[in-house]
Amino acid sequence: MGKRSAWHIFWHLFRGYWNSEHKWKARGLLAFVIGLNFFGVYLLVRLNSWYNEFYNALQQYQVDSFWPLVGEFTGLAMLYIVIAVYAIYLRQAVQIKWRTWLTDKYLSRWLKGQVYYRLQVQNSDTDNPDQRISEDINQFVNLSLQLLIGFLKQLTTLVAFGVVLWNLSGAFTLNLGGQDIVIYGYMFWFSFVYSGIGTVCAHLVGRKLIGLNFEQQRFEADFRFNMMRVRENSESIAFYGGENAENKGFHERFAKVISNFWQLMKQTKILNFYVNGYAQLAVIVPLILAAPQYFAGAIALGGLMQTVSAFGRVQDALSYFVESYDSIAQLAAVVKRLDTFTEHMERAEMVENGVRPQTADDTELRVEDLRVQLPDSRVLLENCSLTLPAGSRLLVTGSSGCGKSTLLRTLAGIWPYGKGKLSLQKNSRLLFLPQKPYLPLGSLRRALYYPGTAAGSDEALQAVLVKVGLDKFVTRLDEVDDWSRILSLGEQQRLAFARVLLQKPDWVFLDEATSALDEPREAEVYELLKKELPQMGVVSVGHRSTLYAQHEQELKLAGDGNWQLQTI
Q1: 0.70 surpassed by pTM
Q2: Which of 260, 340, 341, 439 is deepest in the core (most CB within 10 A)?
Q3: What does the alpha-carbon distance between residue 118 and residue 430 come to, in Å, rounded to a whole number?
Q4: Could you tell me where the DSSP H helices lie in 60-185?
Q5: What's the rounded mean pLDDT across residues 255-263?
Q6: Burial letters for 548-564: b for 16+ Cβ neighbours within 10 Å, e otherwise?
Q7: Over the stretch 512-555, which tens digit does the pLDDT of each residue have?
């Protein structure tokens, strides 16, 4: 886990919620859950005493005591059931609240400052952030609560039943070299030593599970993500007839899932052999240890059964880490994945921001000393300075790979490998349209207003749809569907122009935003923008010669840092 210890990483992830704005409610509810578990231990101690009375009554044929003792057991058992059920129920309530808070924090951090985008730009090896947030956080919260509450419960059990076992086991005299050595509470000490050795052996047997669990989650997520990619790009794959290639990819990723799972199975099998053998041996050991006193008449049958029960409780408490080793291994793997994800987000946040808009007094858009480069430090654009009056139209041209789209990313402030100044009038609104518009899940109305959430009148929305040639959808504004599947790419691009008309930005940047439209339709949407929003500036990236007629200036990029600005 790098330079930090596993405990330090766990504590960093763990403490946030319990020191948050919800800390008092969270701590109170957790304390109540722990209190229920403590009360459950008290009931187990009462039941342990009941064993003594009940089996003594059986041994002495006391019929009059039998049914009252059965009634006492029934009452204790029913109370214990209620306590056990609500202890789990309220623990799950804590889990929900903790998971909600932690998920919100991770989502906010992932989305803030385009961290989700920077993780891809920086070629981070963070795989499947969606799984880290949805599954790993849930596992972290669930396993942490289970192990924490379980540990406290077993610690209380150890103290309570340790006293009982100490008193019941009495003293054992061991003769060594003619000298008698008296061991008080010998069964307690035997249980302590037995469990200590068992815990160390469990770690030696099961430590490989941590790495295997980590890899299993990663391979499962990769396999699932590959299927999701096919679903998202089903049409392209169908056109290519790429079923065989995709099937081969599925089998390659699934083979990693199965191969790692076989290793996980083998290691779990070894651990289970050990854990089950350890547990079964612990059943017979107390009987063997207590048998001499029973046959000597020092204790009755009830005392024997109470001793066996107390030994079992102490043994369970001391063997907590042996029994929970698989869960601990899973938690360690989850902590490692979340720590890696957090570390990569921290790196993305530390990267110096690219170009950010600065306030100017006039309506011009000014770019000064703009430098754009790639992550490998190759310079695409150097010392670029432009002044664009409001309402002007600039066409960015150049060969493929020269940095046209990267220039727009830099001006949008999402490309961290750019420097320079971008000056705009205060409160100027910018809108960027990529080549393939993003359509969120939900209604058509929501897709039209994205990224905003404002709700306009049906008449206004219908009028805009008619203007961009999507009049056949005017009656489907509130229809919820996968609109990226329903609309063709050309229709999606026209919908993006509808967004421009609705949001009325001061500047719009079009990254080949008309590539799927025929030339007459392309000219139509550009003329529509000029007519509806004459004061809006337009910066376009494109290859078509027909775009020259819609712009006033051309910025030609060479791709090696050089550039040329000329009037069309």
Answers
A1: no
A2: 341
A3: 21
A4: 63-111, 115-121, 129-131, 137-169
A5: 91
A6: eebbebbbbbebebebe
A7: 999 889 899 999 999 999 999 999 999 999 888 889 989 999 99
